[in-house]
Structure formats: C-alpha cells, structure tokens
Design brief:
The longest helix is centred in the N-terminal third of the chain and has 17 residues. The protein is globular. It has one domain: Alpha-Beta Plaits, CATH 3.30.70. The N and C termini lie far apart (46 Å). Strand 1 and strand 2 form a beta hairpin. About 15% of the residues have low confidence. Helix 2 crosses helix 6. The strands form 5 sheets. It has a 3-stranded mixed beta sheet. Strands 1-2 form a two-stranded antiparallel ribbon. It is of the alpha+beta class.
C-alpha cells in the first residue's frame, strides 16, 4: 500500500509541477479517453504557497440576465452540452440567493470555491482530487475512478460527472468520460500569466463583477479591496477558507 501511495504521489507531482507532454490520445480506463496535455509553463517556474489565487465577486454588479461568465467558461474549456441540463457539465453557474426573512435576493456566479481546506480532497480515495500550492483545486483525470465521493462532499455542488463520450477536446483542458471535473480557475491561463476566462468576459461585458488576483499579495487589487471593503465567504461557518469571496450578499 505504501509503495502504491508513493507512486501516486510521484505522479501527482509530475502532473502539477514538472508536467510531461503526452502524445496522442491516452486510454486511462474502459471508455475513458484523454487527449494530449501540453505543459503550460517551464518546469523551473515552480508553483509556491507564496501565491494564493482567488476571486472577489461583487453581486451588486452581477446582472441576472447576464451569462457572459458562463458562456466564456464553456467556450474556454470545451464544455459542449448534450441538451440534458441534469447531467451537462456546469463549471460555473448563475444562482439566486434569497433571504427568507426579508425576501432580499441577489444573483451571482457559483463555481468551485478553491478552498484552503477542501473536503473533496479529504474524501478522495485515490488522490485524484488535489490542491496545488497556490490554492487551485484540481482533479487528476488519470487516476480519478469516478466514485463521486468528492461530489457528495462539496457543499457548493461545484463538481460535475462526465456521463457522455467526448470528442474534439481542447489540448489545454483534457476531459474524460467516467471522471469528475469542476472549475480549474483556468489554470492553463493562470500559468501563462493570463486572467481566467470568466473574469475577462465579465470585464468585456462592462460589468466588472469578477476580480481575479493573488490573495496573498497585499499590493494586489483583490487584496486591497478585501482589506478595505466588507466581503464574505459562502458557508464560511464550515471553516473551509474558500478562495472566492463575495460582496453584496
């Protein structure tokens, strides 16, 4: 068992940091296909805990009829629907939060909260659910067995299960039938020094509701906003320390 765990830990380090380019299509389990993975950045640029990526989302600026962030996420990650809303992947979705006592309601985007203490990682039996040093929570599709324990553990209902056979996948974001997936914070873009697609689309739509940045950098715009203005974490009572903060809720 110890030897098997060491092999898994070694693979996870390669998947997250060193990154090896895999040629052609890889079969990881019956019916599960993943296309080649391109290394997003040089191996010497190690991911460190000095950085913690996150979002600050202002619900007051999020229009109920705007789905720019959802559309951008779907296009960036190749999330093609199958006209089955109950099973189609939703890495980011718009939800309405309502106070039952005052009837006050707000509309906001909900995605993986990239918790500092992610319950999905705690319950994963294979180590497929994992958290990078910079706070980004990911799923290694090569060792995910599709047990869906992580989906049950997530209080944000942020994870989806791939029920369909997938074709025409994007090289930056391989997906596989029979595996679990969720928002990756557009890790392939982040590793290139770019902004996640949802935040970029929100700016392009002239809403400015989603701010992305380094929560650990006191000089970053997001850290300054959080220090100066009131914000909250959804289900903060669970003490998971989400990397996504909200205003106006």
């Amino acid at each position: 068992m110890k030897q098997q765990q060491n092999k898994i830990d070694t693979y996870r380090r390669k998947f997250l940091g060193e990154g090896v380019a895999l040629a052609a299509t890889v079969t990881i389990a019956p019916g599960v296909l993943l296309h080649n993975i391109a290394r997003a950045k040089p191996a010497e640029e190690a991911v460190t805990s000095e950085v913690r990526w996150g979002f600050l989302i202002d619900a007051n600026k999020c229009a109920s009829d705007c789905n720019a962030c959802v559309t951008a996420c779907n296009e960036e990650n190749g999330l093609t629907g199958f006209d089955r809303p109950e099973t189609d992947a939703q890495w980011i979705r718009k939800v309405t939060v309502r106070d039952k006592q005052t009837n006050f309601s707000v509309n906001l985007p909900m995605m993986c909260q990239h918790c500092a203490e992610p319950p999905c990682v705690d319950v994963c039996p294979t180590g497929a659910s994992m958290k990078r040093e910079d706070g980004i929570v990911l799923v290694d599709k090569h060792i995910c067995i599709g047990c869906r324990y992580c989906m049950m553990a997530c209080p944000y209902k942020a994870r989806s299960f791939v029920h369909e056979t997938l074709t025409d996948q994007l090289p930056d974001m391989p997906r596989g039938k029979g595996t679990v997936e969720s928002c990756t914070l557009c890790v392939h873009r982040v590793d290139r020094g770019e902004t996640p697609a949802c935040a970029e689309a929100c700016v392009d739509a002239e809403k400015g509701a989603i701010l992305f940045g380094d929560l650990n950098d006191a000089n970053s715009d997001i850290a300054k906003r959080i220090a100066a203005e009131a914000s909250t974490q959804v289900r903060g009572d669970l003490r998971l320390d989400p990397g996504v903060r909200y205003q106006g809720i």
